[in-house]
Amino acid sequence: MPPKINLNKCDGCRAEEEPLCEQICPGNLLTLKEGKAYCRADRDCWDCMSCTKICPQGAIETRLPYQLGYYPAKLIPRVGTNKIMWTCVDINGKVERFVVKTRND
Amino acid sequence: MCAEKILPKTVDEIEVEVLETDFLIIGAGNAGCFAAIEAKRQNPDLKVTLMEKAYIDRSGCLAAGMDAINTYLKKDRTIEEFVKWSRSQAGGLIREDLAIKVAENLNKPAEEWEQWGLPIKKDEDSEEYKTRGKWDITIQGESMKPIIAEKVREYGCEILNRVTATNVLVSDDKVVGAIGFGVRNGKMYVVKAKATCIATGGAAGLYKTYQNDGIDSHHQLWYCPFNTGTGYAMGIRAGAEMTTFEMRWCATRTKDFNGPIDTISVGYKTPMINAKGEKILEKRYAHLGGEAAPRYIRANAPMEEWQEGRGPCFVDTRNMSDEDIKQMKTDYLNERPTYVLFLAARGQDLKKEPIEIYGNDPYIVGGHTASGYWVDTNWSTTLPGLFACGDVSGGVPNKFVGGCAAEGLLAAQGAVKYIAGLKSQPEVDEKQIEAEKARVYAPLFRMEQEGDGVQWREMEERMQRLMDEYAGGVHQFFRMTEEQLKYALKNIKMLQGQVKYLIAEDLHDLMSCHEVIDRLDVAEVLIHHLLFRKETRWPGWQTRVDYPEVNNEEFDCFVNSRKNQETDEIEMYKRPYEQILPGERLQP
């Protein structure tokens, strides 16, 4: 059940010709439905998180299928210019943070 | 966008866009992007066009990033050492002529990537790249795809995003471009080109995965699930020669998640253990090199343990330091970020519970094994005007990201030379374009006219189950026999006969229909290869239970195939192995 879209946060990238998640998805899986992002086939997602990272509203959370892992673990990227700060929360509430450089300064 | 408005209902309603270019590259992944940049460097006046079915910034294998470049020749390492290592890892059968040329070009793409912005770790107090294992360097590659996409734009290449290729254009036995359709706009694109290069990546989704539970795990694959063998299929249908499909990529992956593990276990020196806590490679495969055993041995070892009742198996992380565990998770965030989520979703502490491992659904991927187009040392396929690089190109296993990039450079150099020698602009065959219109859009027309038929998903699942059960899938522990393979072939051919009943309601469906059609063509050729090699050369990758031994007298050679253009039959034959570098081939 990969991209979980928060409909309160998603604005369908109103100003854009197509929303960024639709533009970026390598599987052509995201599209718009009633003005909001919508994944046409959860089972066909590769969990690459491209949509989650690019969303300007932070409206997309990547979830794992329940057959793989339990609720409510979370992995949230905060994308900066040359780095990503990742926050991971496990099912017991334990928090881990990682800072990953993505480009040379 | 309202899909109904743009869907053609008849052949006459198809909007056709005809484009002309000098060099057409199909697939804007790592290999395709390097090919495009190199062609522009060779001759800035050339028009270079990339046809990409997704969006160049995050398409293909590198969508989520990469945590290492596994083929870099560090200081004091030689080309000869690399090729001998690769030869030994592949059971002694590689195209040495090609592998030497790839090795000569391995370092350039990595160094360029770094100049363009890719962070590569350096050793402390030195300008040398930090290493992990014999040929691996550690990178922070989350953004390596956007970085190279920017360069492709900077070099002035034309990019056709969201156009999926369906066939190459053939005229007077030459390839003169390709046809595709717009996944978003429904147009048919006819791109005429002086030279064409296939760089689409290999084939995932031929086999059923063990995680496929019918809910949300269908694409829980190690290999990019959007690489659906289209690059192979286009060549197969046009009569290009293919090699070594039977050398399938089955590897040890993290169980359930199906993520990478090999470089991690090598890099952090974590041994593979079985349920009894025995170090598998040391205990049972010491005679084949132990922890340094060939890749197919390492791949198959945990599955053998399961078979013998000693599963589950693990990569033992319990002795790792806290610092190393944190670093390993960071590596995963750069390549398959949700593996960190997976551990969190199981509440798994790697100091207490090791990582479980298992085999993956088999892939055909020439970046890891030797499957793909039979090319010459200009990376030209057997069809004049058609080049191939990266995962679709055969003969050079263990090339990985760095080697696929190097092949991009080499294929572009070959294509630029070919273009310079062309005397006349190629004509395209209008009859082929008309036939392709009818073929490509048929599932839409059938839905419009009949409203009933076969959904791509139904056919995909049937194909994947057939391949899994009868052509050595993961549920069969990669084992197969003559009778099983013949059953698979008979049914794959029946599915090919059913393709005319496919229906599509929208353009995404239409793309998905062609992804199934293409994989059926790849599966057919794959089964012929598996049938032809009556021996077991690479247990796991190719386990013939009915011929369990290596037969050097008959099969110390390449197995190649070609679809006869008159009869449509797949013809199988051998090509000799040529040793260039002296020495025992199974030793690095």
Explained architecture:
The complex is a heterodimer of chains A (105) and B (588). Chain A is mainly β. Chain A has two domains: 1-60, Alpha-Beta Plaits; 70-105. Chain A has helices at residues 20-24, 50-54, and strands spanning 3-5, 30-33, 36-39, 60-62, 74-79, 83-89, 95-101. Chain A has a three-stranded antiparallel sheet with strand order 5-6-7. In chain A, strands 1-4 form a two-stranded antiparallel ribbon. In chain A, strands 2-3 form a two-stranded antiparallel sheet. The N and C termini of chain A lie far apart (36 Å). The model of chain A has no long low-confidence stretch (mean pLDDT 95). Chain B has helices at residues 3-6, 30-42, 79-89, 96-104, 107-115, 144-154, 230-238, 262-267, 280-284, 295-307, 322-333, 338-345, 400-420, 430-449, 456-470, 482-498, 507-532, 552-555; strands at residues 16-26, 48-51, 68-69, 137-138, 158-160, 163-171, 174-182, 188-198, 242-243, 252-254, 272-273, 313-315, 355-359, 372-373, 386-388, 454-455, 479-480, 502-503, 543-544, 557-563, 570-576. Chain B folds into three domains: 14-248 and 366-420, 3-Layer(bba) Sandwich (FAD/NAD(P)-binding domain); 255-359, Succinate dehydrogenase/fumarate reductase flavoprotein, catalytic domain (Flavocytochrome C3, Chain A, domain 1); 430-576, Fumarate reductase/succinate dehydrogenase flavoprotein-like, C-terminal domain (Methane Monooxygenase Hydroxylase, Chain G, domain 1, Up-down Bundle). In chain B, helix 15 (456-470) runs antiparallel to helix 16, helix 15 (456-470) packs parallel to helix 17 (507-532) and helix 16 runs antiparallel to helix 17. In chain B, a hairpin with a 6-residue loop joins strand 20 and strand 21. In chain B, strands 1, 2, 5, 6, 7, 8 and 15 form a seven-stranded mixed sheet that branches. In chain B, 36% of the residues lie in helices and 16% in strands. The mean pLDDT of chain B is 95. With 588 residues, chain B is an alpha/beta fold. At the A-B interface, strand 5, strand 6 and strand 7 of A face helix 11 and helix 12 of B.
